[in-house]
Design goal:
Helices cover 40% and strands 25% of the residues. It is built from seven helices and ten strands. It has a six-stranded mixed β-sheet with strand order 5-4-3-6-7-8, with helices on both faces. It has a two-stranded antiparallel ribbon with strand order 1-2. A two-stranded antiparallel sheet has the order 9-10. The relative contact order is 0.14.
Length: 224
């Protein structure tokens, strides 16, 4: 089983990936929902770091210097992924994350951990991109510290749907900043893997749910 399929099973087991009738922040009625706030144990965050490490390594082959996790959800992601990279691939990479408010005493500054430095290669890790707001805030913050290169942006799931225009948030980030965005899985990969597949005695995506997902993607999906 590929790590992508293992990750889908993991999300289901953690209650992060669910199917039914939901409404997104944009008011869209959606048949699938991803709530990364449902990760809540040490075992889960450790395993989540393993999946990010797999994706980071397959994307970069280890050719980067540090991980950056935007506050708040990116903080545990940067730490757990750095640990997993060391354990799984023997890569001792730096990690850092930002404060929401810049510290004006002690060492000062807004970044904690290994600071980006000139000519360093930085990988940003996020959970799920909706509007891409935190990434748009992160890039100038990182660039203000040093003349470094943003090597990639790693996310857990690409919903593959449009933002306000014809492009998805992922496509907008790639276009605006020239950053490669790599998800651990896409919604298409999730559907292909789960359609009519029994998980713990239950089929999560039967033909009816598949039809609803296809209708949703026809309305809101991006052109690949």
């Amino acid at each position: 089983m590929s790590y992508k399929h293992e990750f889908i099973d993991f999300m289901i087991g953690a209650g992060v990936l669910t199917f039914g009738d939901f409404v997104t922040k944009k008011g869209r009625k959606t048949p699938f929902f991803i709530n990364t706030g449902n990760y809540k144990t040490g075992e889960q965050i450790s395993k989540l770091g393993d999946f990010y490490a797999e994706c980071i390594y397959s994307t970069t082959k280890g050719e980067f210097d540090l991980l950056y996790g935007p506050a708040y959800k990116g903080i545990p992601l940067s730490v757990s992924a750095a640990i997993a990279l060391h354990k799984k691939f023997n890569l001792n990479k730096g990690f850092c994350f930002n404060r929401k408010e810049e510290k004006d005493h002690g060492e000062g500054g807004s970044l904690i951990g290994m600071k980006p430095y000139d000519n360093s290669k930085v990988v940003i890790i996020e959970d799920v991109i909706s509007a891409g707001t935190s990434v748009r805030e992160s890039v100038p913050l990182i660039k203000a510290v040093a003349s470094c290169k943003i090597e990639a942006l790693i996310i857990s799931v690409d919903r593959m749907e449009r933002g306000e225009g014809e492009k998805s948030a992922v496509q907008e980030i790639e276009s605006q900043f020239g950053i490669k965005v790599q998800p651990i899985v896409t919604i298409k990969e999730i559907v292909d893997y789960l359609h009519n597949k029994e998980i713990n005695g239950k089929i999560l995506i039967d033909d009816d749910i598949l039809c609803k997902i296809n209708d949703y993607m026809n309305l809101y999906g991006v052109k690949s």
